[in-house]
Amino acid sequence: MPDPYILIVIIAAAVALAAAFYFLRGSSGVDYSTNGKSKSPRGGRTSRDADSDGGGASGRWQRDTLDFQLDEEAIIAAIRAAAETSAGNIRVSITKKRLAKDTINTEALRHFHALGIHRTPHRNGVLIYIAPHTQEFAITADEGIQSKSGAAPWRRAATQMREAFAKGEYTEGVTAALATIAITLTREFPR
Prior knowledge:
Blueprint: H1 4-25, E1 28-33, E2 36-37, E3 55-60, H2 72-85, E4 89-95, H3 104-114, E5 125-131, E6 136-141, H4 143-149, H5 152-166, H6 170-188
Parallel strand pairs: 4-5
Antiparallel strand pairs: 1-2, 1-4, 3-6, 5-6
Helix pairs in contact: 2-6, 5-6
């Protein structure tokens, strides 16, 4: 039988390692990009040289149950289809965080910069950031695409997501928004 003190030390070390891994990893659950799943960004400050002059839209949906699930293959396929026709950078991120009221846009912008989406040569990156626990999402578009497209495509994509999410059609909502974003990026920044 092992010494109880050694067992307690081992358990405490395992808990400390698990907590350190969680906090170093960041709070994001999943990040989809053209390469499929990629690592979540580590927590940190937003780059000071990055502009926040872009645009986008955000929304909230109402469901009695929290049954949020996405078909990963369908999301990745939609992102890859957009990448075949446009020179933009599109990401979809789902966070595990329970966000405070009215902080979705701030969190999405922080995540946008943490992923480096603002570093595209033409500033034409777009992030769909979803917080299932608070039933909110934000679409963040960088200044290059926002200056050419205006606000209409992002509002249209947000409406598509909100309507589909309210029915529990999460994959359909994201893929519809991705199709709208792809059309906008292809028009303004064709491959």
